[in-house]
């Protein structure tokens, strides 16, 4: 005889309290009965949650990333000794068949009313139908070889819904927002949500608020995620120094890394998921990339101010660049337009200090730069490079 049973942790006993007003006919009878009930919590008898543990009454749900545990017992119901008993447990999924048996060695003999016990564990890594196949082969006293199998079918469900968004900064930084939703029917304790970056990036987690002593989680002290609740986690990825100056390399990097998520449910049952490699759309810099290195937050009306731009050759050829500055209705460039910047090698960069002024108040967009490669006679125009707040220093407030 072959017995299969899933091993799960017990749950807290729940009771249904029955109460009434003191002036009603039963008086305090129901209250006294609840206080005498050993399953209730002292001082909180009216709560449904008891202090006793109960064994699971059904299979329950099992989710991707959790550990499936099962107890297998082979019992000799006959009055004869059987020999060479081999118990084999396989887990059949949609893509593979896994051997979960602790030992593949046959037991020499099994006496009447005796049993062979085995406990198997497996971290489920696929969604969908799973079939636990238990096969038992043995030899009778008459030398007859017999064989039988039993099947145990269950579904593995998806515990979390993970969505990601990428934001490419003006520099080579990449910001990743991960939205994680609990789609189970019970609460989760989020033990860890981290980003394992690819070899070209260093990652910084932006999910804490720094205080004088230590960082405090942006989610507060409680790390529980209720059913159907969603959290947003934010990460910043910066190119490692050895790759930061290789604009062409960083431009082509689409693999960012993968999320590692660890949680606990009920009485400490742990689950873990790792996403596949996250990929972003590579930013389209073109052959020449112009980025802003320095700009003041606020400038005065009609007063010159300085900015610093960075020009990077993202192509695989050397360029000979000429800078042209075109005024707009609000932005006026100071200096000579059409000056030579010289040759720029592939993946090389140069810093470009510029001076300009604004003739209009308010939030103004800096535009009007043009680069020309004299080798191929190609022109690259850059509008909406940045925005700056222009104020009038002469305006006085009325008292």
TrEMBL record:
Pfam families reported in the protein's UniProt record: TRAPPC13_C, TRAPPC13_M, TRAPPC13_N
Source taxon at top rank: Eukaryota
One GO CC annotation: TRAPPIII protein complex
Trafficking protein particle complex subunit 13 C-terminal domain span: 296-390
InterPro entries: TRAPPC13, TRAPPC13_C, TRAPPC13_M, TRAPPC13_N
Ranges of residues in domain Trafficking protein particle complex subunit 13 middle: 160-283
Span of domain Trafficking protein particle complex subunit 13 N-terminal: 5-156
Protein family membership: Belongs to the TRAPPC13 family.
Record's subunit section: Part of the multisubunit TRAPP (transport protein particle) complex.
The protein's name: Trafficking protein particle complex subunit 13
Source organism of the structure: Salmo trutta (Brown trout)
